[in-house]
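Assemble and predict.
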Amino acid sequence: MTTYREKLVVIGNGMAGISAVEQILKLTTKFDITVFGSEPHPNYNRIMLSYVLEGSKTIDDIVLNDLQWYQDNGITLHIGTTVTKIDEQAKEVVTADGVRVPYDKVLIATGSNSFILPVPGSDKEGVVGFRDIADCNQMLQAAKTYQKAAVIGGGLLGLEAAKGLVQLGMDVTVVHLMEDLMERQLDHQASSMLQAELERQGIKFKMGAQTAELLGDERVSGLRFADDSVLEAEFVVMAVGIKPNIAVAKESGIMVNRGIVVNDYMQTSMEGVYSVGECTEHRGTCYGLVAPLFEQGMILAKHICGVETAPYEGSVVSTKLKISGVDVFSTGEFIDGPGHMIIANKDEWKQTYKKILLREKVMVGAVLFGDISDSAELQKLIKQKAEMTDELYESLMGSGCCGGAGKKSTSVENMSNEEIVCGCNGVTKGTIVDVITNQGLTTIDEIKACTGATRSCGGCKPIVEQILQYVLGDGFKTAAKQGICGCTTMGRDEIVAEIKAKGLQTTKEVMNVLGWSQPEGCSKCRPAVNYYLGMIYPDSHEDEKESRFVNERMSANIQKDGTYTVIPRMYGGVTTPEELKKIADVSLKYDVKVVKVTGGQRLDLIGVKKEDLPKVWQELDMPSGYGYAKSLRTVKTCVGSQFCRFGTQDSMGMGALLERKFERLDLPAKFKMAVNGCPRNCAESCTKDIGIVGNDGGWEIFIGGNGGIKARLADSFCKVKTDEELIDICSAIIQHYRETGNYLERTSEWVERIGLEEIKAVIVDNMDSRKQLVNRIEFALQQVEDPWKKMLSDDKSRNRMFHRLEVSH
Amino acid sequence: MSLSNEAFYPVGSLDQFMIQVGRVIELNGLQIAVFRTSDGNVFAIRNQSPHPKGGPLAEGIVSGHYLYDPLYDWKIDLETGNVQAPDNGRVQTYPVRLEDGQVWVATSEFLAV
């Protein structure tokens, strides 16, 4: 006997449609599902397109469900196919090619389109929206050819697009009709702070400007505004808003308003036809954000599967700007209005702003700028319609600024099980509670692996932790004790102490004696333990090649195609014509793809084949530049007193000296230095682990700077008069970091964790401990050797690691 | 599928493979990564990450019978080729025999992907 499977046709292969399908699949197998998508891609995470543009993710990275997933779940997928109509009489869905597919139920999830301003010239070449992968690709392309871009619209999308284009090297002006950026999500105060920050990041603004016409022949060449002023632009992104895509519904005679009108169970006016996501209008509201579509999808799934569910009553929306280094958050009612009581705190020094709005004592909205660590909690409280109490006030606002004092202890008890915790992956509180109670998960990492929560943007981590704490109760403290990785519950300090106390010598021994769950560890703990052993026993520890990351093991940087980059050492960024000639000769001989000047003043030889590496090193006959290592990379220098008319100190000389002194020593993470001959700071010491600035009477030392993932300006550490003192202090800082840093912890994080004053106390104020640190680093430095030389003299290892065995038969 | 002895090719002596450090062999036009684990076993898998962006596998970190891929840190079971959660996918594995200190790896048209 075969059971009849109901036919469900989903129109729209985006986040809304597919997340609804995922929910349905969890509840039933009774549907035969067909999905139509007009884009030629599988389902991807649209909210992460900003990261693609910014360059931190690729399109592959943001695919949510690959083609295999559709196959595994028996879903028929038609990509690049647009549905034009639902034929209610025939109960068939009709595509643009005239194909007809019968249905029992239909889900319309067609999302929205970019709203293109109806001004003359908006159809010119070089004008795009910012909605999908095709738009994103056009922007990436344009940045290669054109210089000047305009983004019309200073909302969330516009700003993210602008930042992306700036990142791609374009000169970008954001044109906004209002006087405030993101005026639909932020109040005036937060907007002006945001604008100032973005200006600092290189975005230009033209506020209060109404675009009247796009200029140019075939291709756009500029914008003319209502006041007749003109802005030059070779590329224009329209990000003024979105328009629900209601074409199919309209064509089929379904009731539409601004969006497709649905009731509290996501049913449209046509029998058997549902709709979710940005194309819908529920109780007069069209949502343009991600959280509502998960909430709608869940209610739809239950309803369509015949499971009892509460009605959908609308969503409290919140906004987070996805631009690195700019933290903005708003939720609920955030613009001051009559009847609101405002609690606000602005701190111009720390560049933070926090505002909570109350209506009769009840929390109804909030805005955060600069520090959004309270966003999850505020979102939850506002959803719960929590009343402000003295206790809550204390925990949210503290006695200092922006919640500096009292720390949170509120529970997530009142959150409903259906509530979405992770907006990126649509994971509910109920799912998380379930895996904790039924599968016995006890850490955020386990929850991430099992449910996907916290896996994308990580913004929900605090709330997941609170749920964990709430469900485990007293068990939390012991259970949540997080080790350096999933193989152990021991932290870094404990491991180091045990190695010393028990005299453990190899990673294997450490893992056996200290009870690792995976006897040979993982890719997180093996390199870490190998480092700790080398730090503790600089003379006797035998470095374990098999516990090193590929780059360090091969002494070169692997590229995604499996070739390697070789970086010869150039002390202090200085080279000679002879060296350059040698580099050029070797590059030609071994067919190097690109020779690139790095940010650290040296040359990348990109695209060397693995089996050629030893020969390249031999023929270069220069020391390894350690471009791959957790150790000193470069010492960047300016020209200094040798040639510069302003230089007061010999920065090139000092840079080369420091680089020679500290090269090759293993450190917890990569390490960069800079030496400047004068306070003009041409070598940019403010973003280095140790930055040194020459002045008339000596040097000033800065530590903890970082220009990478989380930018941080270095802190002024101390001033010294002599070169000897400078070298001693650098030695002591590096050794102290070696001994107390967590593996992979940069000094920017280390300084914040240990405390600047604490480090000064050990190195600047206490001559005795400084001396001991210097002695220990001197001893460790005696043991280092150049890895390229070493590999060239070790025939057996070189052969086994670099040679490809060709088997003839 | 049963494999006749003819499908196996000698690819080198055991000594040519370092413990926990992968090595690439080229066999029948295939790039195969061979791993010698600390318990004396040898595994052979296709030297191509199942990650959508691909990349080599031979340079990963080996733990027990698992491999952490060098580019994306996916955890891969050397015995089955299965990628471990939360990621998923599979790498082609090839049968290995050890005889008198020699490593033999089998491929055939049926096994080659």
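The longest strand of chain A covers residues 340-347.
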